[in-house]
């Protein structure tokens, strides 16, 4: 737009600037309409991004709970504290266990002879040893070979196999600084062998083997078991425990593994919350008030209805519902749905059913035999179909949402964007076209305004010329009359 009009209708008496502004404003109506459309599209894109995040959160929660290990939380109750720490990862067999801890795993540790000053140079230091089949050669040169410098350099060069520390075994009045080398790994296979320490001033030498590398040794339910570390993660399915202290001879501890109904119901409530967040968003977007208008920018968006319908159909899928079982539908398991599709969890009922038959309760929600699509190609509809016998609500929800959100491959082999991605791309493409069209119209509008300015300028100049001629003629006529 020029915006620089240098006349104001002096000759014509017209408010030419106001006339031009009104004409330009009328000509700008198509641009304003396009800008409004772009703003509306961007509001829809923002809304779809928010909705996509809610759906992704629901899908992630369903994926976490789709297996026994993710769904069936367990609790562990030991008979005594301080001997072992336990973590039940889910799916551990219920029961009572007896545990004897006869020996803890430890690393090999060696000390050198002490020195009175950890900062005094030792005239160069050479250290060599074998560790786990690897020969280590270390050298600290004279001038940079104090005990502190040796430990720091050794950790920098060989910290992957040993840890060097300097410990004062004396006191402030009579210090005795000792270099200690400790293997990085515990277990009988990780010994520091053939250790040799030589210093240029002769003050440093190997002193003692402080601790000998050894395995952890336990007896679980009468079975002797060894591990190179103090962690036992592969002994009982779904259970990890770390031993911390030896049990008294003849006095093993016991621990019980059982279903943690609080944790399971808590996970169900988290799923219900994620599910309701999706339904609340859809409901808000779908409302309409005669005075206020649509409830949200996505009013009428079919993608929201598609996802809501898909979730509802999945919950009542024939793959899940079993009219002959007391655990055969979501309603029987303590989760009810209202007319708006929102879920409510009856925690007390769910805990009661868990206590009666945890396996039957879990079977409705989890996929016990795993997902098998029969080798279907990625991106095809069959890729998301489980051909195995067992199904579970959470795995079905996860697969259904994946089939809607993931990119697909058409029968012709071309890529097709997922449901929400496709809709966002359409809106983004529309805005790109609108930007281009607005640019074209603004360019034309600038020309239109310039033409108006030129036309009105010419009009004023013409009128000014005519007025000057009229004045001249009037003056001439007046002079003639005077002469007569």
Protein traits:
484 residues; alpha+beta; Immunoglobulin-like; 3 domains; 5-stranded antiparallel beta sheet; 4-stranded antiparallel beta sheet; 10 helices; 41% helix; 22% strand; flat; disordered N terminus
Radius of gyration: 41 Å
Measured as a percent range, the helix fraction is 40-55%
Structural class: alpha+beta
Biggest β-sheet: count, sense, barrel? 5 strands, antiparallel
Residue windows where pLDDT falls under 50 for at least 5 positions? 1-6
Q: What distance lies between the first and last C-alpha atoms, to the nearest angstrom?
A: 57 Å
Q: Strand order across the biggest sheet?
A: 1-15-3-11-12
How confident overall, as mean pLDDT?
A: 88
Total of DSSP H or I helical runs spanning 4+ residues: 10
Overall number of domains: 3
Content of β-strand? 15-25%
Report the strand count.
Answer: 21
Overall body shape: flat
């Amino acid at each position: 737009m020029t915006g620089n009009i240098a006349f104001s209708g002096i000759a014509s008496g017209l408010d030419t600037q106001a006339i031009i502004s009104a004409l330009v404003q009328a000509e700008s109506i198509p641009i304003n309409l396009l800008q409004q459309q772009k703003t509306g599209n961007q509001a829809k894109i923002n809304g779809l991004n928010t909705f996509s995040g809610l759906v992704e959160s629901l899908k992630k929660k369903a994926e976490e709970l789709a297996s026994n290990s993710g769904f069936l939380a367990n609790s562990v109750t030991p008979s005594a504290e301080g001997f072992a720490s336990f973590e039940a990862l889910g799916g551990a067999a219920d029961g009572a266990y007896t545990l004897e801890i006869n020996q803890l795993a430890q690393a090999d540790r060696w000390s050198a002879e002490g020195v009175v000053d950890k900062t005094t140079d030792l005239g160069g230091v050479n250290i060599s040893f074998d560790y786990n089949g690897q020969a280590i050669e270390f050298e600290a040169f004279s001038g940079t070979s104090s005990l502190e410098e040796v430990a720091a350099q050794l950790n920098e060069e060989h910290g992957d196999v040993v840890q060097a520390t300097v410990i004062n075994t004396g006191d402030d009045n009579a210090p005795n600084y000792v270099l200690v080398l400790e293997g990085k790994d515990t277990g009988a296979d990780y010994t520091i062998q053939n250790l040799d320490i030589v210093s240029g001033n002769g003050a440093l030498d190997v002193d003692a083997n402080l601790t000998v590398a050894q395995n952890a040794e336990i007896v679980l339910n009468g079975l002797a078991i060894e591990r190179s570390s103090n962690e036992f993660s592969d002994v009982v399915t779904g259970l990890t425990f770390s031993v911390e202290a030896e049990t008294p001879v003849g006095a093993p501890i016991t621990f019980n593994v059982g279903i943690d109904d609080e944790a399971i119901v808590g996970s169900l409530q988290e799923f219900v919350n994620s599910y309701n967040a999706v339904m609340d968003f859809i409901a808000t977007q779908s409302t309409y008030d005669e005075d206020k208008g649509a409830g949200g920018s996505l009013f009428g968006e079919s993608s929201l209805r598609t996802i809501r319908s898909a979730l509802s159909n999945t919950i009542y899928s024939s793959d899940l519902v079993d009219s002959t079982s007391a655990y055969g539908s979501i309603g029987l398991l303590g989760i009810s749905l209202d007319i708006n599709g929102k879920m409510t969890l009856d925690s007390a009922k769910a805990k009661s059913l868990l206590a009666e038959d945890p396996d039957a309760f879990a079977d409705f929600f989890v996929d016990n035999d795993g997902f098998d699509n029969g080798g279907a190609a990625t991106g095809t509809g069959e890729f998301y179909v489980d051909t195995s016998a067992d199904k579970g609500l959470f795995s079905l929800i996860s697969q259904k949402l994946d089939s809607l959100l993931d990119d697909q491959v058409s029968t012709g082999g071309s890529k097709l964007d997922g449901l929400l991605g496709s809709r966002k791309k359409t809106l983004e493409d529309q805005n790109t076209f609108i930007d281009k069209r607005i640019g074209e119209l603004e360019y034309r509008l600038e020309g239109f305004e310039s033409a108006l300015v030129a036309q009105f300028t010419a009009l004023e100049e013409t009128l000014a010329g005519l007025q000057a001629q009229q004045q001249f003629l009037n003056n001439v006529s007046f002079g003639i009359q005077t002469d007569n």
